[in-house]
Specification:
The chain folds into two domains: 129 residues, no CATH class; 90 residues, no CATH class. The chain has 256 residues and is mainly α. The two termini are 22 Å apart. A hairpin with a 2-residue loop joins β1 and β2. Strands 1-2 form a two-stranded antiparallel ribbon. The protein is built from twelve helices and two strands; from the N terminus they run ααααααααααααββ.
Length: 256
């Protein structure tokens, strides 16, 4: 609640601080926004973002993009995420928005952003082999891990998702050569978590849900996003889509 009040105050400041030269008739256009026309939110968000020079103005743009995406996820959800990512300065949040855009673009699929491997193209036998290799490696049996990866398609799948592994697939294979005695490798909690997430997603197969999805970029930590909770993901309240008297309000809320 405190965070929401802070955002509302910042939004009010954004409108007061912007001149007509920045966005023509800004207050009038904000007041005219209605949830039945999400496109208007998105278009106004673009104009505000293009001329934004302050935190308050960028906050307003984010809210407009977020409302557009949340009000009509099918038409504007992905576009809103991409627009928000474009103006996002925090690297982790940018990755999260791009991950959400991917899910909205391709349904709930296990997918790298470069499109090399998609859920429908993953062979169950190869997926099981990679999961088995990860398990054997954690047990210190590098020989068995390498043997599991001899399964057709397993090595290609491992390479496609090497961002899940610290040091990538190449480091994993090198370590398998080293750990053959049965002594488990020294792994951090984050390393183990990454492997378990990858195993779970691969073994879930076609029945996996969004929580099993792997959305990994450039060695970053695992990112989980839920396209079914887009309003929460975009930090907007779809129950308050009307701008009036410097605040976002419910449709039925009376004017003071």
């Amino acid at each position: 609640m405190k965070r929401r009040k802070t955002i509302l105050i910042m939004l009010a400041g954004a409108v007061i601080g912007m001149t007509g030269a920045d966005v023509p008739r800004l207050n009038e256009r904000l007041a005219a926004l209605r949830p039945s026309n999400p496109l208007a939110y998105f278009e106004l968000g673009e104009e505000v973002a293009d001329g934004a020079t302050s935190i308050e103005e960028r906050t307003l743009a984010r809210t407009l993009f977020g409302l557009a995406g949340a009000l009509d996820r099918d038409r504007f959800g992905r576009s809103a995420c991409l627009a928000l990512a474009d103006i996002e300065e925090d690297a982790a949040q940018k990755r999260r928005l791009l991950a959400l855009a991917d899910l909205l673009d391709d349904g709930t699929s296990l997918r790298r952003r470069d499109g090399r491997t998609q859920r429908k193209s993953i062979d169950p036998a190869a997926a099981f082999a990679v999961a088995q290799a990860l398990h054997e490696y954690r047990q210190g049996s590098g020989t068995r891990a390498l043997r599991a990866l001899e399964q057709a398609g397993a090595m290609e799948l491992l390479n496609a998702y090497d961002d899940a592994l610290r040091g990538g697939a190449r480091r994993f294979l090198e370590d398998c050569e080293l750990y053959r005695s049965g002594d488990p490798p020294a792994l951090s909690a984050d390393d183990v978590s990454r492997m378990l997430h990858l195993e779970a997603a691969l073994l879930a197969g076609a029945d996996r849900t969004w929580t099993d999805e792997l959305l990994l970029t450039d060695g970053a930590t695992l990112i989980e996003v839920d396209p079914d909770q887009i309003a929460e993901s975009l930090h907007v309240d779809v129950n308050r889509p009307v701008y009036r008297d410097g605040r976002w309000r419910e449709m039925t809320e009376r004017r003071r």
